[in-house]
Specification:
Helix content: 10-25%
Largest sheet: 3 strands, mixed
CATH architecture of the largest domain: 2-Layer Sandwich
CATH topology of the largest domain: Trypsin Inhibitor V, Chain A
Strand order of the largest sheet: 2-5-3
Oligomer: single chain
Number of domains: 2
Number of helices: 3
Shape: globular
Distance between the termini: 82 Å
Strand content: 25-35%
Radius of gyration: 23 Å
Length: about 170
């Protein structure tokens, strides 16, 4: 039995559309940075990018789950559907508290440089700001000391904004 002309046209058209659709989807994506975010926000950003999430941390705790590490690293290319391992910790302070009616919309960025990382994060949380900590991922020990921040101290930012903290280990 020989295929008919309409059958060949439909097959050719569908085959071309399927190949075009497959070509339109990227084979790899850049892994989004989720460090310092609440776990539910990190999961949303990663799944929106076409990645899957594996959570590593204590299932029971008090407060908010805050992302402390991720693999692959932010910015690396990963296949669509690849798994990103997300480590988290429980924090009573967590990310910034939700805005209450009448709260100021702008806050000043506190001085963080020279503080221990834990104290810097606490100051940001008290000010209603979030933290995105960037530092060594393994292999060292000592005290985590803040060596930089962006935006700079004293700048006015919206409540709930994320402040990037750069830190390193000291002895």
């Amino acid at each position: 039995m020989r295929p008919t002309l309409p059958f060949l046209l439909v097959s050719l058209l569908l085959g071309g559309l399927l190949r075009a659709e497959a070509a339109a989807q990227p084979a790899t994506v850049a892994v989004p940075r989720v460090l310092g975010l609440r776990v539910h926000e990190a999961e949303r950003r990663l799944t929106d990018a076409g990645l899957t999430v594996r959570l590593l941390g204590q299932p029971d705790g008090e407060g908010a789950r805050i992302v402390t590490a991720q693999r692959p690293d932010p910015g690396q290319q990963a296949r669509v559907g690849a798994q990103v391992r997300v480590s988290y910790r429980w924090s009573r302070f967590g990310a910034p508290p939700p805005k209450a009616p009448g709260q100021a919309r702008k806050v000043r960025v506190p001085t963080l440089t020279g503080l221990r990382l834990r104290e810097a994060v606490r100051r940001l949380e008290r000010a209603g700001l979030g933290a995105d900590a960037i530092g060594p991922t393994a292999g060292r020990s000592g005290r985590a000391l803040v060596v930089g921040q962006h935006p700079a101290k004293g700048q006015s930012v919206s409540r709930g904004a994320t402040i990037r903290i750069t830190w390193r280990y000291t002895r």
